[in-house]
Recover the amino acids of this structure.
């Protein structure tokens, strides 16, 4: 089976997402609001990770396409809600007006709710997955996006504003808030590919380092990034008096942590079977490490 490049897979994801929310017989513009945020751009990291991991594991990436789209829907709903005045109160996301600035707050809330539930519909209706794997993926996604995963991490993050926390608590926040869905991307692919336990465990540990890398880099970019490349203003963490890797460890300390998780992720991927072409997963590590937006 011919391997696809990262750019090819992203193009596939964008094509699949374009127009995925069809018109409703209810004749509201809720679907327009949902599609607006799905089409607002982004790196498509989470769905890309599913498809790349399937490629690495010599599995048919088509078996992960619906799961990849579902994951991007959940990520998008979380961004819509994060941008609301009650939370981060952002006017722009990826250089475009945020959903509530275009459609109003109540419709943005409902668009997020609808994307969340649509995600599970997509996986449940996926004819390419056998029922046992489908149930595993739905269960994992519910866990990783819910009160013990992304939503729980966001809650702990909000509760920690305006109060000092230690580095252990910060890591707990980000393993849930950011890391849980990145871990889901890797492990859902591992489940679809039905890998052995040794491979599964290595990929799980790899995904945890990847999630912390992503957040540490975010913290660095929030202070030292280029606003034009980020598509939003920098310094929001400072304005909100949030504890970050930079505020707790300083720039040099945060960069040292980033380096540690990078090296750990690479070491784990290098332990995988020689039957796998690991280059794409190493490329992801470098992408996270070097990204500027």
């Amino acid at each position: 089976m011919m391997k696809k490049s990262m750019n090819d897979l992203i193009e596939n994801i964008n094509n699949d997402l374009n127009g995925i929310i069809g018109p409703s017989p209810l004749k509201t513009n809720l679907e327009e609001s949902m599609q607006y945020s799905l089409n607002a751009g982004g790196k498509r990291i989470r769905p890309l990770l599913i498809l790349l991991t399937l490629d690495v594991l010599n599995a048919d990436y088509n078996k992960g396409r619906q799961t990849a789209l579902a994951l991007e829907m959940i990520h998008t709903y979380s961004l819509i809600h994060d941008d609301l005045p009650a939370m981060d109160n952002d006017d722009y996301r990826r250089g475009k007006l945020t959903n509530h600035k275009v459609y109003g707050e109540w419709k943005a809330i409902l668009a997020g709710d609808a994307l969340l539930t649509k995600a599970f519909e997509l996986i449940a209706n996926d004819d390419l997955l056998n029922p046992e794997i489908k149930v595993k993926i739905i269960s994992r996604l519910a866990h990783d996006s819910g009160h013990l995963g992304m939503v729980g991490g966001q809650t702990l993050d909000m509760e920690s504003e305006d109060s000092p926390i230690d580095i252990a608590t910060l890591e707990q926040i980000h393993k849930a808030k950011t890391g849980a869905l990145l871990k889901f991307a890797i492990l859902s692919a591992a489940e679809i590919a039905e890998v052995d336990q040794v491979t599964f465990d290595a990929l799980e540990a790899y995904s945890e380092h990847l999630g912390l890398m992503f957040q540490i880099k975010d913290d660095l970019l929030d202070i030292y990034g280029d606003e034009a490349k980020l598509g939003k203003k920098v310094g929001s963490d400072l304005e909100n008096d949030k504890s970050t890797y930079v505020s707790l460890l300083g720039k040099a300390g945060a960069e040292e942590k980033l380096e540690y998780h990078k090296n750990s992720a690479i070491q784990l991927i290098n332990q995988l079977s020689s039957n796998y072409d690991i280059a794409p997963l190493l490329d992801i590590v470098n992408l996270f490490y070097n990204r500027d937006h």
Notes: The mean pLDDT is 92. Residues 186 and 203 are 7 Å apart (CA to CA). The first helix runs from residue 6 to 17. The two ends are 33 Å apart (CA to CA).
